[in-house]
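Workshop exercise sheet. Pairs work together: one partner reads the sequence aloud, the other fills in the structure field after running the prediction. Swap roles for the next sheet.
Pair: D.N. / O.F.
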Amino acid sequence: MNGFSTGEEDSRGPTDQICCLIENGDRCSKPAGNASYSKRIQKTVAQRRLNLGIDNNARHNYICDFHKMIIQCARNKRRRKDSEDDSNETDTDVPEVDLYQLQVNTLRRYKRHYKVPMRQGLNKAQLADTLMKHFKTIPVKEKEVLTFFIYTVKTNANKLDQKNGINNDTN
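Structure field:
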């Protein structure tokens, strides 16, 4: 799940419905999909300052695939800090990791490994959001990690190779 209520991936709402959003003062005329404009999505739109709003005359809250993709892209992009806007620096300090791309079982394994406390029954989007907050708090000593990585590559000391019985001395 990615924050949108979509049900089955290839099902669509009734064909006579159009997107419930107003963009730059004009109602969207694209056919509505099955993604709904929930409170959570409204909050994302407000935070990212997207010029979107719901048409109060619409009898539903379904949005088109075009606006769904705009909202998803805006949510996944990391906003720059104000201090970076003044300089010509890019956001190279903290690479963005998209946990939404991982499977639910992988997210659960991460949660179990790091013993991240959270309530039961979270959907994929909620799980990814919570784990992203945890992921960003993990301290990384870059110099140590890079040094160890280079050493591991140069010596072919891969734990997976050792488990599979591959001898490092034969290279």
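Discussion prompt: The first strand starts at residue 21 and ends at 23. What would you look at next?
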